[in-house]
Write a structure and sequence with these properties.
Two copies of one chain form a homodimer. With 175 residues, chain A is of the alpha/beta class. Helix content of chain A is 37%, strand content 21%. Chain A contains five helices and seven strands, in the order αβαββαβαβββα. Chain A has a seven-stranded mixed beta sheet, sandwiched between helices. In chain A, helix 3 packs parallel to helix 4. The first copy, chain A, is globular, with a radius of gyration of 16 Å. Chain A starts with 6 loop residues before the first helix and ends with a helix. Chains A and B meet through helix 1 and helix 2 of A and helix 1 and helix 2 of B.
């Protein structure tokens, strides 16, 4: 009898954590100005969720291609299509300091792909972030100025990751 | 403020219900002889789950193609590849009366596809089933001799469906 979790449980626990972390983040950013970055469209389920709970936010969605369900597809002007190695640095300049919530859900079955994605987001996201912005991610990140926060109730440890970005934290670490 | 659930929540609730229903079914069939039918391989997460919790059962998996993760792929002799309209009637004859658990997870975004799948499984599964067999499904089914059961704790109503097959129920309804 093994104690390891199955692939089905792994996905279920990740989704439970994702929904709990997002619910927490929606409350945290309420009343704060700023736009949302959604990295990874996939079939668009999470975009659909973001749009439902954040109806007044501009949500920009990144992916290599648009392969989402019809009712989960962003307006063309909010969709940033291409390799994230190119699109994220460009968007971080275009929207410098404006992002109040960045959600990154770009992990896959491939460890190699995941390592590449973790480095890219870690390296290029920071310039886009507003003071106090939240980063939610399915993969651990190392974003300069971002500090890891504990997960909210309902999210199993290490199934999702939350960080808060602060320029003062960055000043602190560079001293 | 809308009360409808998002596509992300819809998938989460379905997976919660699926895992709860399977856990209940694993206990119910413990000690009873019989094989398992898994209809719909997909990426193989549920097959991985079944194999982990039912290590001594023969599990036969149906799908149009094999597109699963390497550690979620059935042995070739347990994989029944092809259109379910052809493969299910054949398999129901080959394994007549031997199936103690049939799990059907073949719904998609398309209502038309779902209606077709519901009819096919409803029409062709029964001959494979052992007396007292359980059917778990992401779509409602109408299998002759199968009676719908309430969902176990942890499964939200109408997110999954459980049926028990019994020849005596069939005799009862034909009277």
């Amino acid at each position: 009898m093994t104690q390891r979790i199955s692939r089905l449980e792994k996905l279920l626990f990740r989704m439970e954590a994702q929904v709990a972390c997002l619910a927490w983040a929606f409350r945290e950013i309420a009343g704060k100005p700023g736009i949302v970055f959604e990295m990874g469209l996939g079939h668009g389920r999470t975009f659909n969720h973001l749009r439902q709970y954040l109806p007044d936010r501009d949500i920009y969605v990144f992916d290599r291609e648009v392969d989402s369900y019809p009712d989960c597809t962003p307006a063309p002007e909010r969709m940033i299509v291409g390799e994230i190695a190119r699109t994220l640095p460009e968007a971080a300049q275009r929207f410098a300091g404006q992002v109040v919530l960045a959600h990154s859900d770009i992990g896959s079955f491939s460890q190699e792909h995941n390592a590449a994605m973790m480095s890219l987001v870690s390296a290029h996201l920071a310039p886009a972030l507003a003071e106090g912005a939240l980063i939610l991610s399915d993969l651990p990140l190392i974003v300069p100025g971002a500090t890891r926060l504990p997960l909210p109730e309902g999210a199993r440890e290490d199934r999702y990751y939350i960080y808060r970005y602060s320029l003062s934290a960055l000043a602190g670490t560079s001293r």
